Amino acid sequence: MAKNMHLDELDHKILQLIQNDSQKTLKEISEQVNLSLSPTHDRIKRMESDGYIQGYVALLNRKKLNLGLVVHCQVTLEKQNRKNFSEFEAAIKAFPEVISCHLVSGNFDYYLKVLSTDVESYNRFYQEKLAVLPSVAHISSLFVMDEIKSTTALPLI
After folding, report:
1. Measured between alpha carbons, how far is 55 from 72 in angstroms, rounded to an integer?
2. Region class of 128: left (phi > 0), else alpha (psi between -120 and 50), else beta
3. Are 29 and 16 in contact (CB under 8 A)?
4. Number of alpha carbons in the 13 Å side-chain half-sphere of residue 155
């Protein structure tokens, strides 16, 4: 990924600091990038208004929230047409268990990441919500056995 022409090295450093800990104070950020408060604040506000910073969130511990099972699903639709894509995507957006959904190329149409408490609750989701969608032809579920690397941080290359 090439650096964006609108962001300089200092902007990237600020973004990385915020991404690693969005609760850092303006003073802490300005000290770490060796810039005074006002220009640091101006840069952050510019990156917010330009859409580089979309918001600030808390990362929750899914295991403590009893969402220890991660399942990756490969979904194939019966027919690849606009109506089926639209209906499937609208339904998926309403399922809180699905934390990401991607339209992909290859042997299947969608790649989903699903969180669940256990296999039984995933099976209920599978049978009662996912498999009953009218356009779904095939679902392959991959159960995560161990998480080697997982991050929400974007690499600032």
Report:
1. 26
2. alpha
3. no
4. 4
